Amino acid sequence: MGQTLWFASRATGLVSLLLLTATVVLGASHSGRVATTRWPRFTLHAVHRNLSLLAVAFLAVHVATAIVDPYAGIAWLDVVVPFASTYHPFWLGLGAVALDLLVAVIVTSLVRTRLPLRVWRAVHLASYALWPVALVHGWGIGGSDSSLSWVLALEGLCLAAVVVAVGLRLRATHPDSEARR
Fold first, then answer.
1. 12-36: pLDDT as tens digits
2. How far lies 28's CA from each of 32, 33, 125, 162, 167, in Å?
3. Rounded distance, CA 100 to CA 94, Å?
4. Which tens digits make up the pLDDT trace of 67-103?
5. How distant, in Å, are the alpha carbons of 8, 12, 59, 76, 125 from that of 64?
6. Angle 138-53-14 (CA atoms, 0-180°, nearest 5)?
7. 102 close to 59: Cβ distance less than 8 angstroms
8. Measured between alpha carbons, how far is 68 from 21 in angstroms, rounded to an integer?
9. Phi–psi pair at 35, nearest 5 degrees
């Protein structure tokens, strides 16, 4: 198999970053009650949900190919227990932290109707921590790929998109929110 698994892991990691970025941007837009006649809120919500599912699928392939690749010697436990790996323990540990946060967001979203809204919202806000941790994981563990100009440009665009979306979300006001305060 040679470098096939290595390339697959790197590629699916970058695609996962793109999809997670789009998910965070849409999530921030949806929670900020952004809507247009062409993109009503229910559409934003559906696209957010579907992109997040696609991100999870690519992330699963990213993790599986990294584990199956014999070069790094990453074990299944290393993927969920932060900083326990012998292969780049800090950088892989950040990936494990991001994955653990993502699993918490997924599980609470699946049982959302059985949880108090405040609990679900508090855990769901962890995705705002998950995203930069995943980005830094990629910077640190990406090796020489991390310094490629197109990878840096891609990561820079993702960073800019999230900063703008979250900034707009933090500045957003809505009559319903104001009335609740």
1. 999 999 999 999 998 888 765 666 6
2. 6, 9, 10, 9, 9
3. 10
4. 999 888 899 999 999 999 999 999 999 999 999 999 9
5. 10, 10, 8, 9, 26
6. 20
7. yes
8. 26
9. -160, 150
Say what angle helices 41-68 and 4-31 make with each other, to 10 degrees. Answer: 160
Question: Residue 56's closest CA among 111, 115, 3, 109?
Answer: 109
Can you tell me the distance from the alpha carbon of 30 to that of 15, in angstroms, rounded to the nearest whole number?
Answer: 22
CA distance 17 to 144: 18
| CA-closest candidate to residue 127, choices 97, 151, 168 | 97
Task: Kindly tell me the burial class for residue 127, based on how many C-beta atoms sit within 10 Å of its own C-beta (0-12, 13-18, 19 or more).
Answer: buried
| Cβ pair 99, 56 in contact under 8 A | no
Amino acid in position 51: L
- Confirm whether pTM is higher than 0.90: no
Look up residue 167 and give its two tokens.
């900034």
Q: How many whole angstroms separate alpha carbon 57 and alpha carbon 62?
A: 9
- What's the rounded Cα separation, in Å, for the pair 119 and 76? 29
CA distance 149 to 144: 11
Q: Are 102 and 79 in contact (CB under 8 A)?
A: no
